[in-house]
Specification:
The chain has 526 residues and is mainly α. Helix content is 74%, strand content 2%. The protein folds into two domains: 3-205 and 260-498, MFS general substrate transporter like domains (Growth Hormone, Chain: A, Up-down Bundle); 206-259, no CATH class. The chain contains 22 helices and three strands.
C-alpha cells in the first residue's frame, strides 16, 4: 500500500464515496424504525414469536443500549485502527446479526441478535461521518454533511414504509433479512472505493477512559429505558441514572488529567461545540418522541395498516431529501445561527399541530405536520453537525462524529422514554373507570397501553376501545406539548450560542475552530 497525503481539493472520488457511505448509513438508520411496524406481528403467537410487551420493548432497547453505549468507543477505535476497516467490520457484524434476527426462534434470541446489530451499527455510524470529514475539503464539507443528514432523515422516515411492504408479502423476519444484501453490497463498495484514513499521531490508548465511557453511557441509556418502561421513580431507573452521573463525572475528571485523553472534554468550553451537540440532542428528543406516539396513533386510533401508516411518514422523508442538501447554501447566505433557529422553530410548529389532532382530524394535516418537521430538521442537523466537525482536527474526526451520534442517539432514546412515560401516565389516568367490571387480566392489559386495549377488545367489547382512543388522544396532546417545549428550548440554545454569519472577508477558522483546514492526514489507497 502507498501512503499519500490528502489533496487540498479533497479526494477525487469524494462524491462517489459519499454515495457509498449513504448506502452504509441507510441500512443502519432504516433498521431503527423498520422494526416498529413489525412489533404487532412479532407479538402474534401464530405468525410471530408470541413476544410479551416487555420482550418487544427489549427487542428495541437491546439495540439502543449497545449502540449508544459503544458509539464513542467505536469512534476512538476508528481513528486509531482505520475508518475503512472499522466501517467494513461494522457492516459485516450488522449483516450477520440481521440474518440471525430474521430466523430467531424465540424472543430472547431476537433480543440477543438485536444487541449484536447494535454493536455493528456503533462501528458504522461514526466511521461514515469521519470519512466525509477526511475526503471533503472544508468548503464542500457542509454540503456533503447535508446529504449525510438527509440520509439519516430518509432512513427514519422510509423505515415504516419498507417494513409495511415486506410484512404484506413476507414473514416478520423479512424486515431483518433485507439488511443482509444491502450491508454486504455496502461492505464491498467500501473496500473498493473508500480510502483508508486514521489518526497519524494517536498517542497511547486511554483504556481507563474507554472503559469509563462504556460503563457510563450504558448506565445512562439503561436508566432512560427503564424510566420509560417503569417510570423514573423506579429504583432501577433512578439508581442507574445516579450511577451513570457518578461514572461520567469520573470520566470527565480522568480525561482532564490524562496525557492522551479519549475525549478532550475542554472542547465543551467551546460554545460552538457544546451548543451544537446540545441542539442535536434536543431536536432528536423532540422528533423521536413524536414519531413514537405518531405510529401508535396512525395504526390503532386511525386503523391504518403498516404500509398505509408508513406512507404517512413520506412527507418527512421528502422534506429531508429536498432541503437537507440545500442547507449548506442557506447557512452560507444567512449563517448557522439563523438557519438552526428557524429550523427548530419549524420543528416546534410541526409538533404544535399535533395538539389539534383528534380521532377524526383530516389525515392530510398529519402529513403536513410531518412535512414541516422534516423541513425543520433538514435545516438543523447539517449546520449543527458541521459546527461540531469544524471544531476538531481532521485526524480526530472519528471522535467528533462519535460525540455527535452519541448525543443524537441518547436524545432520541430519552425522548422516547420520557415522552413515552408521559403518554402512559396520562393514558392510564384518562382511562379512569373504563376497565371497572372487566376480568383482572383484561383490565390490566387495557390499562398497560392502547395496544393492550386493542389486544383484549374481543373480550372487553367496543366500549373499551372508544374510551381507550379518547384517553390516548389526550395523552398524545400532552406528549406533543412536551416535545414542542424541547424544540423551543433547542431554538433558544441556537439563538444564544450558535455562531452567526461569518463576514465575507473573514479569514477561514484555524486552531480549535478549524484545524481540519491545515492538518495533514494519512490516507492509504486500496
Amino acid at each position: 500500500m502507498d501512503t499519500t497525503a490528502q489533496a487540498p481539493a479533497g479526494h477525487p472520488r469524494r462524491w462517489v464515496i459519499l454515495g457509498v457511505l449513504v448506502i452504509s448509513l441507510l441500512v443502519v438508520v432504516l433498521d431503527n424504525t423498520v422494526l416498529n411496524v413489525a412489533l404487532r406481528t412479532i407479538a402474534d403467537p401464530v405468525h410471530g414469536l408470541g413476544a410479551t410487551q416487555s420482550e418487544l420493548e427489549w427487542s428495541i432497547n437491546s439495540y439502543t443500549l449497545v449502540f449508544a453505549g459503544l458509539l464513542f468507543t467505536a469512534g476512538i477505535l476508528a481513528d486509531r485502527l482505520g475508518r475503512r476497516i472499522t466501517l467494513v467490520t461494522g457492516l459485516a457484524l450488522f449483516a450477520i446479526a440481521s440474518l440471525v434476527s430474521s430466523y430467531a426462534d424465540s424472543a430472547n434470541q431476537l433480543i440477543a441478535a438485536r444487541a449484536l446489530m447494535g454493536l455493528g451499527a456503533a462501528a458504522v455510524m461514526p466511521a461514515t461521518l469521519s470519512i466525509i470529514a477526511n475526503v471533503f475539503e472544508p468548503r464542500e464539507r457542509g454540503r456533503a454533511i447535508g446529504v449525510w443528514a438527509g440520509a439519516v432523515g430518509l432512513g427514519v422516515a422510509i423505515g415504516p414504509i419498507v417494513g409495511g411492504l415486506l410484512l404484506e408479502h413476507f414473514w416478520w423476519g423479512s424486515v431483518f433479512l433485507i439488511n443482509v444484501p444491502i450491508a454486504a453490497a455496502g461492505a464491498i463498495l467500501v473496500l473498493v472505493l473508500v480510502p483508508e484514513s486514521r489518526d497519524p499521531r494517536p498517542g497511547r490508548i486511554d483504556i481507563a477512559g474507554v472503559i469509563l465511557s462504556i460503563i457510563g453511557l450504558t448506565l445512562l441509556t439503561y436508566g432512560v429505558i427503564e424510566g420509560g418502561d417503569a417510570g423514573f421513580g423506579d429504583p432501577k431507573s433512578w439508581g442507574s441514572l445516579i450511577a451513570a452521573a457518578v461514572v461520567l463525572t469520573g470520566f470527565i475528571l480522568w480525561e482532564l488529567r490524562v496525557e492522551f485523553p479519549s475525549l478532550d472534554v475542554r472542547l465543551f468550553a467551546n460554545r460552538q461545540f457544546s451548543a451544537s451537540t446540545g441542539v442535536i440532542g434536543l431536536i432528536f428528543f423532540a422528533a423521536m418522541g413524536s414519531m413514537f406516539f405518531g405510529a401508535f396513533y396512525l395504526q390503532l386510533v386511525r386503523g391504518y395498516g403498516p404500509l398505509a401508516s408508513g406512507a404517512l411518514f413520506v412527507p418527512f422523508a421528502v422534506a429531508q431529501m429536498v432541503f437537507a442538501p440545500r442547507s449548506a447554501a442557506m447557512v452560507k447566505r444567512f449563517g448557522p445561527k439563523a438557519v438552526s433557529t428557524v429550523g427548530l422553530l419549524l420543528v416546534a410548529a410541526g409538533l404544535a399541530a399535533w395538539l389539534f389532532v383528534g380521532e377524526t382530524t383530516p389525515i392530510w394535516i398529519v402529513g403536513a405536520a410531518f412535512f414541516v418537521m422534516g423541513v425543520g430538521m433538514a435545516n438543523v442537523m447539517p449546520p449543527a453537525t458541521e459546527s461540531i466537525m469544524a471544531t476538531l482536527p481532521r485526524e480526530k474526526a472519528g471522535v467528533g462524529s462519535a460525540v455527535s451520534n452519541t448525543i443524537r442517539q441518547l436524545g432520541g432514546a430519552l425522548g422516547v422514554a420520557a415522552l413515552g412515560a408521559v403518554l402512559s401516565s396520562v393514558y392510564r389516568d384518562q382511562l379512569g373507570s373504563a376497565t371497572d367490571g372487566l376480568p383482572a387480566p383484561v383490565a390490566e392489559a387495557a390499562r398497560e397501553s392502547i395496544s393492550g386495549a386493542y389486544g383484549v377488545a374481543a373480550q372487553a367489547g367496543p366500549a373499551l376501545l372508544t374510551h381507550a382512543n379518547e384517553a390516548f388522544v389526550t395523552a398524545m396532546h400532552w406528549a406533543s406539548a412536551g416535545s414542542m417545549v424541547f424544540a423551543l428550548l433547542g431554538a433558544l440554545v441556537a439563538l444564544i450560542w450558535i455562531p452567526g454569519k461569518r463576514p465575507a472577508d473573514a479569514p477561514a477558522p484555524t486552531g480549535s475552530e478549524g484545524l481540519a483546514e491545515e492538518q495533514g492526514v494519512e490516507l492509504v489507497e486500496a
